[in-house]
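Hey, can you fold this one?
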Amino acid sequence: MAKSNEPVTIKKYANRRLYNTGTSTYVTLEDLAQMVKNGEDFVVYDAKSSDDITHSVLTQIIFEQEGKGQSLLPINFLRQIIRFYGDSMQMLVPRYLDMSIENFTKEQGPLREQFAKTFGVGVGGFGVMEEQVRRNMEIFDRAFKMFLPNGRVDEQAPGTAAPARTDDFDELKRQVADMQRRLDQLGDGSKKS
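Sure. Predicted structure:
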């Protein structure tokens, strides 16, 4: 049987049950969420009044997903949306959001590929990111040691070789002394004028 281009009709009854007229079965909000993920289009009508209530049912699906700890909408975003209700810009927001999510969806494939390349996902986990974190920690460790007296972190542990002493701290002290000397010379020069 060929797939119809028409959306599936879902009827919502007074007892809050949802009935899929395409499969002649009752469905849940989770079933409808799965239909959306599968790219199946549907329209939800109130069984009694025949009003189109698709928007409120989709909003309810989002509410349920957010309530399960699968937060996709940041708090700041939700606050901004609430602020737009009753605002003169309210009529522009839905179209803007629709275009934005449509563009994001189109770019989803390339974004996934770039993410995988950048962070090494799928190729040994987060290999590239782990390597970057390791390098950052080494840089932080060197910088930290540079500001400690004598350039050492701890006393030497028994049975280990002495830590290599760097001259970074001495070099920094020399540069500070040199700058102080220059400042003093500049100060002396301005007093003579």
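The first strand starts at residue 8 and ends at 12. Let me know if you want another pass with a different chain boundary.
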